Amino acid sequence: MSDLSTSAIVVARTRDELRAARAELGDGDVAVVMTMGALHEGHATLIRTARRRARHVVVTIFLNPLQFGPHEDLSRYPRTFDADMEICRKAGVDLVFAPTPDVIYQDGDPGVRISAGPLGAVLEGQARPGHFDGMLTVVAKLLHLTRADSAYFGQKDAQQLLLIRRMVRDLDFPVDVVSVPTVREPDGLAMSSRNTYLTPSDREVALCLSQALRAGADAAAEGPSAIRRAARAVLVAEPLALIDYLVLVHPTTLEDVPEWYRGEALLAVAGRVGTTRLIDNLPIKVGPGGGALEVFSDVHAEPPAQD
Ligand code: AMP
Fold it and tell me: What are the backbone angles phi and psi of residue 210, rounded to the nearest 5°?
C-alpha cells in the first residue's frame, strides 16, 4: 500500500513546469482545489474529498492580487508555504501549482476579464468592489492552465461558489463544480486563513457569527422573519462585532426571501471583528421540519416565483 504521507509531490512554479507535470497525470479525472495558501483543515477537507473522487488532485496556491482591493489585506495575508506543502503531502496531492503573479498575468493586469454581473455586485461584491471579477478571472485561468475535469470549492464562500457555478454554466466551461460543507472549529467558528489575525479576545467576539447562524437555523420551522429575528438577536448582544450584513436570501438569486417562502435559503453574515473582516453562512431549509443543511440539495433550482 502506498503511504500518502511520504508520496512524491511535484511543485510547478512556471507555465512550462505545470504543462510538463500536468502531462504526466494523463487525460481524464483530474481534480483541482484552488487556494490562496495558509492552508488549514478546511482546505485539507476539500483536498481529501477530491482525492476520494478523482484519480489525481492538483492544488493551486496563488494569492491573486486581482481580487484584493487597494485597502485590503494582500500584503499581510499569511504566507506559510512549507506548512502548506506538508498538508498537501498528507492529503495525497499529486501536483502543486504555486506561481507568482507575473506567471499568471504575464502581460500585467489583464485587459480582458470575466464579469461577475449583477450577482457579483451584492453582499460581498458591494463591500469589495471588483473582488468577484478578479476571482472569476483567476479561476477561469487556473481551470484552463490545470485542464481540470472537476473543481472543489468550499460552501464557506457561498457567493464565490455560486458565481463559479454561474460562470461554468453561462460560459460552458467543461468542468464539474463540487461544493464541500464548511469546516468549523469545535466551538463553531468557521475555519479561515484570516482567523490568524484574531487576538484571543477577537476570537471570542467572532463566535457570535456562527452562533447567530445557528440561532437562525433553530428558528427555521417558523419562517423567514423568525429566522432573521433569532440571528439578529445574537449579533445585537455582541456590540464589538461590527456587522456589515445579515441576510436570508434565495440560494441562486441572492434576493431576500419573502415571508411566505418555504424551501432552501442562504443565511449569510459578514462583519468586522478587530481589524479582521469575517464571513460565514449556513444553508437552511425554511419551513416545517426545517433547519441547517450541509450544502444545497439542488444548486440549479429555479428561483421562486414573484408574488
Ligand atoms: P481560500 O484559500 O480562502 O481562497 O480558500 C480556498 C478554498 O477553500 C475555497 O474554495 C474556500 O471556500 C475553501 N475553504 C476555505 N475555508 C473553508 C472552510 N472552513 N470549510 C470549507 N472550505 C473552506
Answer: -70, -35
The Cα 307–Cα 288 span in angstroms is: 21
Cβ–ligand 1 distance for 182 under 6 Å, the answer yes
Binned average pLDDT, 10 residues per bin, the chain of 307 residues? 60 98 95 98 98 98 96 94 97 97 97 98 97 98 98 98 98 98 98 97 98 98 98 98 98 98 98 97 97 80 46
247 and 140 housed in the same domain = no
CATH of the domain at 256: 3.30.1300.10
Taking phi first (over 0 means left), then psi (-120 to 50 degrees means alpha), and beta for anything else, what does residue 67 get? alpha
CA–CA gap between residue 128 and residue 225 (Å, rounded): 27
75 in the same domain as 224: no
Closest ligand 1 atom to 182 CA: 20
Residues 46 and 75 in one domain: yes
Whether ligand 1 lies within 6 angstroms of the CB of 168 is answered as no
Residues 21, 160 within the same domain: yes
Distances (CA, A) of 47 to 27, 135, 155, 228: 20, 20, 14, 34
Domain boundary among 180, 214, 245: 180
- Within this chain, do residues 176 and 266 fall inside the same structural domain, yes or no? no
Question: Ligand 1 center to residue 155 CA distance, Å?
Answer: 8
Phi, psi for 28 (deg, rounded to 5): 90, 140
Domain count of the fold of the chain: 2
Q: Taking the model in full, what pTM does it have?
A: 0.95
Q: Is the CB of 159 under 6 A from ligand 1?
A: no
Q: Is residue 188 part of a domain?
A: no
Residue partners of 112: CB distance under 8 A and separation at least 6: none
Positive/negative CA dihedral, 195, 199, 200, 202:
negative
Pocket test for ligand 1, best of 61, 156, 163 (most atoms within 8 A of CB): 156
Domain that holds residue 216: 195-292
- For ligand 1, atom 7: residue with the closest CA: 35
